[in-house]
Every structure is written in C-alpha cells, then in structure tokens.
Design goal:
The protein is of the alpha+beta class and 65 residues long. The protein is built from two helices and two strands, in the order H-E-E-H.
C-alpha cells in the first residue's frame, strides 16, 4: 500500500485522541492495539519520508535486592 502524509496525519490524530480507528484514504481501518498503531505509523513514516520515527519509550527493570 502506498501511504501519504495525510494518512500519517490521520493516524497521529487517532493516536492522540486515544481511538482505535483511523480513515486512510477511502478506507476505515480498525487497529487491535496502540502498539499496532505505533508500528504502522513508523512503517508509514519510513515509506513516505524514508526515515523511521525515533520515539523512545521507558524500559522498566526490577529493583535490585
């Protein structure tokens, strides 16, 4: 599938709103999880811009005993 900047913007808005659906072109897409949405967003950005989103998420580790 060929993505556009409008598709990226639509998905970003859906993520920001906390919803699991976004309209991409003429198609309504329902995602299973936020992780799936973020993964798709990174793929779309790479396809359109030739780069990958550089978001970093915290990693939680156990406390030393």
């Amino acid at each position: 599938m060929s993505y556009t900047q409008d598709d990226i913007d639509s998905l970003r808005k859906a993520i920001a709103k906390g919803v699991s659906q976004a309209k991409m072109g003429e198609e309504q897409v329902t995602f299973r999880s936020l992780a799936e949405m973020r993964s798709t967003l990174a793929e779309m950005e790479q396809s359109v811009n030739g780069s990958v989103s550089r978001q970093h998420y915290p990693t939680f580790v156990g406390r030393p005993e």
